[in-house]
Amino acid sequence: VGQAFVASLSVTSGYIDLILTNKSMISLSGNTLVNSSFDNAVYLAYLCIIVTIGRVAVALDTQSVVTLSSNSFVNSSVGAGSSFAANFNLESQELSSTLSLLSESSLILSNNTNSRILTSGDVSLACIKVVGLIVLSVKASLHMDGNSAHIGSSAASPLLIFAHSMTVSDASSI
């Protein structure tokens, strides 16, 4: 009972800067959850960055890549709460957080599968949640393609992007 995380990073006060430069990479891909039952939230590939007080900034530069792809739920039942095949979560409870993709960097949440899900809560195959801003520039790209849900019922759509605002420029793409 409770939450299951592949990867989590959090602080209770202060600030966090996560900076990827010069072709750096974070990859949480190819995870599978089979024939499981949970009473609360489940995250197969989950990059969580949270601060309670302060600010959060995530910057990807110079062909850096964050990938949460090819994760799958199979024949799972979630009694209550949320399930995410791929979830990028960037939050600051007091000040705005910013996700910046620059210089041909990419955030990829693709080819995730949610099969035979029965739930009374939310189901998201690919979820991006940013409390503040999402900025894409200099040929940056955000991918949420190739996700699929099969034989399921859900209180939420399988794909979700949440942000206060988004700016796309300089030949970037979503």
Could you explain how this protein is built, in words?
The protein is mainly beta. Helix content is 0%, strand content 56%. The strands form four sheets. Strands 1, 2, 6, 7, 11, 12, 16 and 19 form an eight-stranded parallel β-sheet that branches. The chain has a four-stranded parallel β-sheet with strand order 3-8-13-17, with no helix packed on it. The radius of gyration is 16 Å and the shape is globular.
Helix/strand order, N-terminal first:
EEEEEEEEEEEEEEEEEEE
Unreliable runs: none
Please report which band the strand proportion falls in: under 5%, 5-15%, 15-25%, 25-35%, 35-45% or over 45%: over 45%
Specify the number of helices. Answer: 0
Structural class: mainly beta
Rg result: 16 Å
The counted number of beta strands is 19
User: Main β-sheet, in a few words?
Assistant: 8 strands, parallel
Mean pLDDT: 86
Helix content: under 10%
Task: Tell me the distance between the termini.
Answer: 36 Å
Task: Give the overall form.
Answer: globular
Topology:
Elements: E1 7-11, E2 15-20, E3 25-27, E4 32-34, E5 37-38, E6 42-51, E7 55-60, E8 65-67, E9 72-74, E10 77-78, E11 82-92, E12 97-101, E13 106-108, E14 113-115, E15 118-119, E16 122-136, E17 141-143, E18 148-150, E19 159-168
Parallel strand pairs: 1-6, 2-7, 3-8, 4-9, 5-10, 6-11, 7-12, 8-13, 9-14, 10-15, 11-16, 12-16, 13-17, 14-18, 16-19
